[in-house]
Amino acid sequence: MKQSDTMKRTFVIPDIHGCCRTFRQLLFNKLEIEKTDKLYLLGDYIDRGPDSKGVIDTILELQRDGYDVQAIKGNHEQMLIEFIASNSDEDLMDWLENGGDATLQSYDLENGGCIPREHIHFIKALPAFIATETHIFVHAGLDFDLDEPIADTSQEFMLWSRENLDVVSEKIGGRKVIAGHTPRYLDELEESLDSDFIQLDNGCFLGDRFYGRGNLVALELNSNRLYVQENIDRVLLT
User: Fold this and answer.
1) pLDDT value of position 4
2) What gap in Å lies between CA 218 and CA 10, rounded to an integer?
3) Which phi and psi (to 5°) does residue 55 adopt?
4) What CATH topology corresponds to 8-136+175-236?
5) Which of 191, 162, 193, 160 shows the shortest CA–CA distance to 178?
């Protein structure tokens, strides 16, 4: 059944981390996403899980097919960008130590494979945040010690910070911040839904190894409803 314009939905999904089967299950089975919906993705599409290539393929497929998908950068995309730019052993080791080995395997880079140009262009073009009239979508957070958090927060802070994240709403025009980056338990995610700092990362790549974490979630903004998809990639995780 198709939705009318009055039933448009807006979904936010964080930190997929290479769990493509779980991502697709959430999108097409649990959410039954339609082209009338809007979808925000909060970064960390790659590393740790078994199919980073499949996640990027899925995002690009959605955009080509006319879905309204707005994606931002995570710290894992930034590590890949830095390695591509420098081709240094230091940046390579930094990336590999943070789960990049799974991405190497996904693209079969160790056996002569390559990351498609379309994927590299997509990753390099990702913005660090998206601001709407009501929300700021950012991977980690904003620096509210600054007078102008939106304009002056460094990209490094937006992608990496886990501290000093208390939102000062009046500094960002009364908007709410929605972020991922730091895995939280489901009850913590639910508690954040009515706050000025909504946190959505449930550590999907963890699978079922940690009670209360290891799922991929989606928040529907209009209803403030949290959808929880069990990780079905977990049998492939190490």
Assistant:
1) 45
2) 10
3) -65, -50
4) Purple Acid Phosphatase; chain A, domain 2 (3.60.21)
5) 193
Round to whole Å and give the CA distance between 82 and 55.
20
Is residue 83 within 8 A of residue 92, CB to CB? The reply is yes
Q: What are the pLDDT digits (tens) for 176-187?
A: 999 999 999 999
Secondary structure of residue 116 in the 3-state scheme: coil
Q: What are phi and psi of 108, to 5 degrees?
A: 55, 40
Task: Using 70 as the pLDDT threshold, list the residues of the chain that sit under it.
Answer: 1-6, 208-210, 234-238
Question: Reduced to 3 states, what is the DSSP secondary structure of residue 77?
Answer: helix
Task: Enumerate the domain spans of the chain.
Answer: 8-136+175-236
User: What does 15-75 look like in DSSP terms, one character per residue?
Assistant: --TT-HHHHHHIIIIIS---TTSEEEE-S--SSSSS-HHHHHHHHHHHHHTT-EEEE---H
Tell me the two tokens of residue 189: 């995610």
Please give the radius of gyration of the chain, using alpha carbons only, rounded to the nearest integer.
Answer: 17
pLDDT at residue 139, as a whole number = 98
